[in-house]
Structures are given as C-alpha cells and as structure tokens.
C-alpha cells in the first residue's frame, strides 16, 4: 500500500529509445493520490510510450519508475489489479452483451463494483442487453470506462478517453472522472489532445514535447511558466485597430488612458490561454536547432 505522502506515480529521468531513436529524453513526473493529471503533447511526443511504461507494458531504456510502490517492470497480478486501463477491449468481444461482458470482467477482481450499478454510473443501463457491436462510438467508450473501473482501481489510465464523444457525453464523462477522483480518491492519468478537456479536468498538466516535459503545473500556472504575454487591443484616435503584447497589461492601459485623456475605444485585454502556452511550447521546440543535445533549452523550461 502507498501512504498518503508517497506519490502514486514517481518518475525520474525516464529515457526510452526505439533502436537508435531517442523518444523519451529524461522525463520526471510526480503524481499524488486523488489527483487528475493530464499529459498533453503533439503527435509523436511520447505520451503513449510513457503511459505504456507506467502500465508495465513496455520496458524502458533508463531511469527510475515507481507506480503504487512498485517498479512496473516487476508488477505482478496483484499490482495490476490495483490499476485500471481504459482499453478498446470491446473489439475482441463484439458478440457479447454489455452487462454480460461487464459481469465477466468483474470476476477477474477480488472486490469488483456491482456491474448493474456501474452500468447506471456510465449511463448504459438501457443498453445492458445490447450486443457490444451495436453500440454507438460514445457508448462503446463508456463501456471501455466501465471495464476500466470495474475492479475499483486506485490508479486509472485514460488514453484519449473522449475521442468521438458528443458534448453531452463528454460532460457526463468529465463529471464521472471528477467523482472518481474527488469522492473515491482514485488517481487518474489522462492523455489527451483536447486542451479544454485538460483545463476542465486536470489538477496538474504536463506538456510533453519531443520526449521532454516542457512545462508542468496547475492549468492556471502554465501560462506563467511559458512567459506568454497578455495582449491588449484597442482602436486608436485615428480609427486604426492596434494591438500590443505586454507583461504588464495594467500599466499599458494606464498609459493609454493618460495619453488619450479619456476612454479608449474597443479596449480588450486578453490573458494568455492554455492554448497559447501549448503552442508557445511546441513552437519553441520546432525552433530548437538540435533538440537531442539542447540541454540549455530543457533547463530553462524546467526552471521557468
Ligand atoms: N514500437 C515502436 N517502435 C519504434 N518507434 C516507435 C514505436 N512506438 C512509437 N514509436 C515512435 O516513438 C515516438 C513517440 O510515439 P508515441 O506513440 O509515444 O507518441 P504519442 O505522444 O502517444 O503520439 P500520439 O499523440 O500521436 O498518439 C513516435 O515518433 C513514434 O513513431
């Protein structure tokens, strides 16, 4: 058992190479009990590789990894039963009926959730007797989630969980994940491309770009880490639209007021969003001349 103080996931200097291609270049992560942690990053950044290493499905090249007090490379069945994976399991069980499949998976665990109650939680009670291959995409994904949590995992891995969800299903899913974390203390590691989803759900967000964590923190802290500036827009006295980026928006607005001797037309102050931060990080990586040996850029990002 992990204690409250001990992180559920602790990763130090994780590296991974496929052949001679470095995919993870020294990743550090610390995730605590009951936290919803989002791993964000562009295609090919190394998110799935990281998660597969944490799940114990892939051997790393180097570094230390501790998940629920165990090195995943040595995780046994008892350890595995404490983690939940949301996989596309239904693909292998097309002919099964929904409730039947859930009852079957429940038998794998020592203390499973009640399958009927779980169907209710994920909003699939009406589909209990339906064949899995007759479900809609969103309904299948909810079934994936039900299969992932039927064993009451302490740690839940969600790999792009809401792909294909309509807005209402996405909202219900977010409420469900929040309830698992807040009420039951389940730790959730989520990978997503959806910035709004990360911002809405995550306590902590790590941005992984080219195998390195470029920024990590609460959604509201990330913009500051990227040093992205606020943008002030207004219309000048001659009618020209103006815009300026500044680290001190209130000072700029004060100066505009002073110089205009009165109101400023169409004044708008736009704070950096998570999307600005994300694009800034990804763009900065594109500008690296040699990302493989650019330790300075990494050091700056970590210290920022
Ligand atoms: N089994 C493998 N053998 C060789 N290279 C691989 C293997 N799996 C992944 N890669 C490469 O490693 C890099 C990271 O892949 P990974 O799937 O971890 O990225 P990702 O961040 O999950 O991307 P996406 O958002 O597209 O799912 C990519 O360049 C990919 O081509």
How are the SSEs placed, and which strands pair?
Blueprint: E1 9-18, E2 21-31, E3 36-40, H1 47-55, E4 62-67, H2 77-80, E5 83-85, H3 98-106, H4 115-121, H5 137-149, E6 155-159, H6 167-184, E7 187-192, H7 195-201, E8 204-209, E9 212-217, H8 219-225, E10 230-235, E11 241-246, H9 249-260, E12 265-270, H10 274-287, H11 295-303
Summarize the structure in short:
It is a peripheral membrane protein. By secondary structure, this protein is of the alpha/beta class.
Average pLDDT reading: 85
The run of helices and strands is EEEHEHEHHHEHEHEEHEEHEHH
Provide the CATH topology of the domain at 1-82 and 154-161 and 184-226 and 273-304.
Answer: Rossmann fold
Distance between the termini: 34 Å
Q: Shape from CA axes?
A: globular
Whole-angstrom Rg: 23 Å
| Biggest sheet character | 6 strands, mixed
As a percent range, the share of helical residues equals 25-40%
Tally of separate helices: 11
Structural class: alpha/beta
Low-pLDDT runs = 288-304
InterPro entries: AAA+_ATPase (IPR003593), ABC_transporter-like_ATP-bd (IPR003439), ABC_transporter-like_CS (IPR017871), ABC_transporter_ATP-binding (IPR050763), P-loop_NTPase (IPR027417)
Keywords: Antibiotic resistance, ATP-binding, Nucleotide-binding, Transport
Main location: membrane
Subcellular location: Cell membrane
General description of the model:
Among the domains are: 1-82 and 154-161 and 184-226 and 273-304, P-loop containing nucleotide triphosphate hydrolases (Rossmann fold); 229-271. It has 11 helices and 12 strands. It has helices spanning 47-55, 77-80, 98-106, 115-121, 137-149, 167-184, 195-201, 219-225, 249-260, 274-287, 295-303; strands at 9-18, 21-31, 36-40, 62-67, 83-85, 155-159, 187-192, 204-209, 212-217, 230-235, 241-246, 265-270. Mean pLDDT is 85; it is low at 288-304. Bound molecules: adenosine-5'-triphosphate.
């Amino acid at each position: 058992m992990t204690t409250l103080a001990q992180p559920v996931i602790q990763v130090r200097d994780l590296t991974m190479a496929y052949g001679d291609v470095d995919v993870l270049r020294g990743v550090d992560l610390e995730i605590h009990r009951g936290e919803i942690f989002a791993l964000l990053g562009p295609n090919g950044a190394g998110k799935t590789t990281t998660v597969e290493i944490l799940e114990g499905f892939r051997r790393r090249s180097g570094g230390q990894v501790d998940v629920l007090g165990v090195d995943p490379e040595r995780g046994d069945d008892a350890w595995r039963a404490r983690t939940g994976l949301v996989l596309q399991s239904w693909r292998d069980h097309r002919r099964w009926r929904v409730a039947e499949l859930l009852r079957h998976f429940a038998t794998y665990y020592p203390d499973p959730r009640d399958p009927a109650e779980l169907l209710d939680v994920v909003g699939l009670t009406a589909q209990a007797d339906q064949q899995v291959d007759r479900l809609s995409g969103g309904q299948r994904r909810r079934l994936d989630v039900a299969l992932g949590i039927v064993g009451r995992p302490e740690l839940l891995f969600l790999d792009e969980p809401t792909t294909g969800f309509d807005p209402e299903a996405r909202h219900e899913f977010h409420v469900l994940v929040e309830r698992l974390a807040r009420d039951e203390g389940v730790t959730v590691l989520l990978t997503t491309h959806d910035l709004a989803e990360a911002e809405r759900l995550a306590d902590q967000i790590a941005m992984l770009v080219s195998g390195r964590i470029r920024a990590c923190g609460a959604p509201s802290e990330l913009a500051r880490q990227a040093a992205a500036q606020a943008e002030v827009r207004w219309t000048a006295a001659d009618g020209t639209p103006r815009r300026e980026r500044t680290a001190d928006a209130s000072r700029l607005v004060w100066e505009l007021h002073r110089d205009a001797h009165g109101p400023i037309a169409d004044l708008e102050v736009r704070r950096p969003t998570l999307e600005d931060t994300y694009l800034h990080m990804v763009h900065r990586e594109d500008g690296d001349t040699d990302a493989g040996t650019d330790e300075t850029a990494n050091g700056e990002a970590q210290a920022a």
